[in-house]
Amino acid sequence: MKKIIAVVAALFCVTGAMFADETEDYLKQQELIENNKTVTITPKDQHLDGVKTAKVTIDYTPSTHEVHIYYDVLAVEYDQGKAMNTILECLRDFKSEYDWQYESYRYLRKDSVKYYNDDRKLKWARYHSWVEFKPRTLDGSFADYRKQQNAN
Q: Model confidence over 110-151: pLDDT tens digits?
């Protein structure tokens, strides 16, 4: 009987330690989210190729190295090929501007298109791309930076 009580008590201690570690990780994540600031950038050269109603905006979050890039255009002028090419050119410009900091990027989600109406009842199309940039390491190697972050 004493052995059973000792085993149950040990299981409670192990379970409590596991949840305490998860709570600590959760609190760290919440602190990072609270200090997370997003910068909205309008590129100087938007590579619009003659589309007069289009505009490109970039939402850049330095703490997570993520970029949300938007291509807004009137729905009647929307062409997915032009939108993709414009976003690729703007991403290349962004990467070259921050070349000292980032070595490559990857897509976090498939690109999406959403349609919406503005206050004047005009129908717009928004092409959205979500990208994560891979920061350069101090030694310049292609080491996985997520492993480095998790080690800390």
A: 999 999 999 999 999 999 999 998 887 765 444 455 555 566
Look at 78 and 32; give whichever has higher pLDDT. 78
Could you please report the per-residue DSSP string of 76-90? GG--HHHHHHHHHHH
Residue 108, by phi and psi: left (phi above 0), alpha (psi -120 to 50) or beta?
A: alpha
- Tell me how crowded residue 20 is: count the other CB atoms within 10 A of its CB: 10
- For the chain, what is the mean pLDDT? 79
**Which residues 6+ apart lie within 8 Å of 94 measured at CB?**
41, 43, 58, 60, 67, 69
Contact assessment for residue 94 and residue 57, using Cβ atoms and an 8 Å cutoff: no
Count of alpha carbons within 13 Å of 6, Cβ hemisphere only? 3
pLDDT for 104-118, tens place per residue?
A: 889 999 999 999 999
Q: What secondary structure, in 3-state letters, does 88-109 show? A: HHHHHHHHHHCCCCEEEEEEEE
> Is the dihedral angle over the CA atoms 93, 96, 97, 99 positive or is it negative?
positive
pLDDT of residue 45: 85
Residues counted in the chain: 152
